[in-house]
Model the fold of this input.
Amino acid sequence: KKTLWKSMAARICLEQLEDLGPKGMKGDPGVVGERGLPGVPGGKGDQGPQGLCNCKDGAQGAQGQTGEKGEKGNLGPTGEQGTTGATGPKGDQGDMGMTGIPGPCSPTVQSTFSAALLTSLPQPSRPVPFKRVIYNLNQNYNPDNGVYTAPVNGTYVFSYHLQVSNRALKVGLFHNFEAMVRTTTPTAEMNTASQQVVLSLSQGDWVWVQVKDVNTNGMYAGSEASSTFSGFLFFVFYCETTARDSVATLWNI
Done:
């Protein structure tokens, strides 16, 4: 009975196929289905055999990137001193330098000065500045402060000739803060005070004139009266001789 039904169904299908028309056009694609679940990871495969390399004269690969700078290493030991190099050629002669200051025993040095007072009643207890310079060879006298500085070791002659007006005058000639000679002139309408002295000085020694105090400061300067301070280098001491030997040589003693 089942066989009969199958035969009849097959016959009906064949009849229907014979009645089919020509093949139609391809239809539009259907909607994409949802993504399926990921499959289970496969197991790790077996390691393959190591390859053989018969490379010869292969091309050099590209240079890799520079790595980061490493830390500074420890200081290495000092190397042995190298051998002295050959002496270089002699250089050109330099320019001539300036003339140096005279030495303490320079016989060719000359020094002399003379200066006059500009203002009466100079300040006491300090060097009197005789600011009107009459002569000042080699500029060893400073008119701004009234101090003479010895340029060399030697024998020097100093003098002062002062006008005094309307009061007493006590004045002295000082060598390095020590009074060598002093003059006292009594009060008078017009008077004078003078001294001359010979001194043995070393290079750099100072000499000046100084008034004692305000009450005995009658030093005067005017258009018809001058107060002056003067000095000069008389004889230079040679380094190999003493001051006494130099004076003896001068006078043939």
The CA atoms of residues 191 and 246 lie 38 Å apart. Residues 246-251 have pLDDT under 50 and may be disordered. The first helix runs from residue 2 to 18. The chain is about 10% helix and 30% strand.
